[in-house]
Amino acid sequence: MSGKPRLTYCNGRGRMEPVRWLLAAAGVEFEEVFLETREQYEKLIKDGVLMFQQVPLVEIDGMKMVQTRAILSYIAGKYNLYGKDLKERALIDMYVEGITDLMQMILVFPFSPPEAKEKNLDSIKDRAINRYFPVFEKVLKHGQDFLVGNKFSWADVQLIEAILAVEEKIPAVLSGFPQLQAFKIRMSNMPTIKKFLQPGSPRKPPPDECYIETVLKIFKK
């Protein structure tokens, strides 16, 4: 077994995508195991690998880690992306939690029934423009390149992931946010992130029907 982190999840974004983003931003190569059947998932549970019978699963530093937030916190701390002290860490946590709330809406959107999609898309747009993005626009107006301590952190990675995910659905969403437009350009040109955004990287495409069917097949009883 190599020393690379090993990620077990479906071959799609879901709750593993922020983990892929954070590892990639930290310049860490990783391996992936893709679940394709209910039987694979049930075997992980039977073998006692999944503490709460849930994926994502990340094997790193001799641990079998579950729960997305715990995984991300560990990676951020390990690779010095979690602030210099408790106050910066608390600020990063607040920003990350806010972004996660927005990303949760995007996460469930592909699984919403056809008749609800337009309403749900409007909700994403409203929350992004009126609740979440204004917070980060205000922070960046103070002339800093990054959200916390003017140093690259987990919060910046979460934000660029969210910006790009929302833009896929609402291309003009940043039209009223010049600071976020500049932030997007800066982040997208950072070497590790630029590499992750290239074709052929471990970054997953937006969910399609095949991915949705696979998820439902594996996890829906």
Please write the string of helix (H) and strand (E) elements. Answer: EHEHEEHHHHHHH
- From the alpha carbons, calculate the radius of gyration and give it in angstroms: 18 Å
What general form does the structure show?
globular
Structural class: alpha+beta
- Give the uncertain stretches in residue-range form: none
What percent strand? 5-15%
For the sheet with most strands, the description reads:
4 strands, mixed
Number of helices: 9
The strand line-up of the biggest sheet is 2-1-3-4
What is the number of strand segments?
4
Describe the structure.
This protein is α+β, with helices and mostly antiparallel strands and about 220 residues long. The chain has helices at about 15-25, 40-45, 70-80, 85-110, 115-140, 155-170, 180-190, 190-195, 210-220, and strands spanning about 5-10, 30-35, 55-60, 65. It has a four-stranded mixed beta sheet, covered by helices on one side. Helix 1 packs parallel to helix 3 (about 70-80), helix 5 packs across helix 7 and helix 6 packs across helix 7 (about 180-190). The chain is globular, with a radius of gyration of 18 Å. One of its GO terms (molecular function) is glutathione transferase activity. Keywords: Transferase. One of its GO terms (biological process) is glutathione metabolic process. Belongs to the GST superfamily. Alpha family. Its EC number is 2.5.1.18.
Q: What attributes characterize this protein structure?
A:
alpha+beta; 9 helices; 221 residues; four-stranded mixed beta sheet; globular
